[in-house]
Structures are given as structure tokens and as C-alpha cells.
Design a protein that fits this description.
Distance between the termini: 47 Å
Number of strands: 0
Strand content: under 5%
Helix content: 55-70%
Radius of gyration: 24 Å
CATH architecture of one domain: Orthogonal Bundle
CATH topology of one domain: MetI-like fold
Number of helices: 15
Largest sheet: none
Structural class: mainly alpha
Amino acid sequence: MAVLTQKPGGWRLKVLRASFLTSTIIFVLFPLYWMIITSFKTDRELFADKQTFFPKNFTWQHYFDPIEGIFSANNPFVGFFVNSTIVAFASTLLCLTIGSFSAYSLARFKMRGKRNERISFLILTARMLPPIVIVVPLYLIMQQLGLLNTLWAMLIVYTGFNLPFVVWMLKAFFEEIPESLEESAMIDGSSRFMAFIKIVLPLAMPGLVATSIFTVILTWNEFLFAMFLLNNTDVMTLPAGISTFITQYKTNWGALTAAATMSILPVLIFSFMVQKHLVKGMTMGAVKG
């Protein structure tokens, strides 16, 4: 009977690996933890000389205070939340609709001289551009169109900026689906469009879900464009709206951390709801070159 022996120093490697992973997790999650517990501290505890790692007096003051709570009648947080929800999900829907047709065309209709790959790369280069480079031209364009301080401006900008990322991801998903399935459907009398709708899209659903999650996160957390194009609190999205808690006179840390804590919940809930499809999508070849 063969005896399995552990390599010398193997336990040290395991301890080192476990220590490294634990330290990394703590390093990544500690700011999130600190933000959440800060939102439940009283004002006196927030500005105390000695900070604590857990609230001494747990309070919902910064959430439901009639004057400064984020859910009070005079606080525009709910409006920020609604605006972000509208823009993020409408932009994601547009990106998936337009991007799926574009990605399918690049995946199925081959051109001479590897032009598909060149076009895919050119599309992706638009996403590589630093946002700060184009924010001033975008501001001038929206000003000429009369779309400043409107959700339409954010919808157009986010759709245009995230579309290259969506096309690049979905192209890899569509390439994983056998083309023979569509050919069989077309032999039976189906059109190319109906084969795409009834066969390709259902099979690519994990990829669509994975892409939608990343697109929602990118749109939900975007700050620069919202800060430049929206100056009216009635149409501000969450990242730009939360920044209004920082003024030249004071920083309302309680309301700021409470608003930031609430802002992560929708994306977190959405991710949990579709996590089964997300895992399938990530193993389906979404990062294929």
C-alpha cells in the first residue's frame, strides 16, 4: 500500500497562503466595513478623538432623522436613487440590445483579411480612452443639443461609453455557440433574425447576464460624467448626489456614509439574484481573446 507523505514545509506553505488570503480580504473589505459602521454611529462618536471599530451607541439617525436623515422629506437622496436606477438599467438595456446585434455580426459574418478582429479591436479602443479626455467635448456637445442637466444626456453618454465593452464581451459568447444550430433552424424555414432571437439569445443568456452585471456596475458607480454634465440636484445620479454632502462649510459624514451604504444594495441584490447565470457566463468564454 502506498503511503502518502506530505512534502517538507508543505504546512508552512498552506499557513502562508491562508495568511496572505486573509490579509488581502481584510485589506479589501475593511473600508467597506468602516463605511457601514460609520453610518450607524452618533455624531458625538463620529467626531470623537478615539474612534471605535464598532458603534457604542447604535443609531439609525443618519437614515431616518427628520432633518438630516437621507430618507427625510427635505433630503434629495431618494431622487438620486431613482435617477441612478433609471439611467443604469435603461443604459444597460440599450447596450445589450445594440451590442448583441453588433457582436453577433462580428462573430458570424467573417470578412477578408481578419477585418473582424481589427474592427473588434478598434471598437475596444474607444473603451480604453480615459474619460477625462472626452468630458469637455461631451459637455460642449450636450450644451449645443440642450441636454445638459437631463437624464437623456447621461443615457446617451453611458450607452456610448459602455457599448464597446458589451460588444467585446458578447462577441466571445456568441463564438462559443455552434453555428450549426442556426443553420439547422434556417433549413427548417426560419430566418436568420428568428434563429438569432429564438436560438442564439437563449443559449447566450449566461453571457448576457454576466455582461449586464458589469455594465450596471460601471454605470451605477460612474462619477466623472455625472459631475460635469449634471448640476441640478433634481437630476443627479447617486455618485454625484452623494458628493453634495461635502460642502465648503462641513462634511456630513453620517449622511454621506449612510447614502453610500444604501447605494451598494441594488447592485448587490441584483448580483445575488443572477449569480447562477453569472458563474456560467464567466466559464463560457467571456474573457476569450
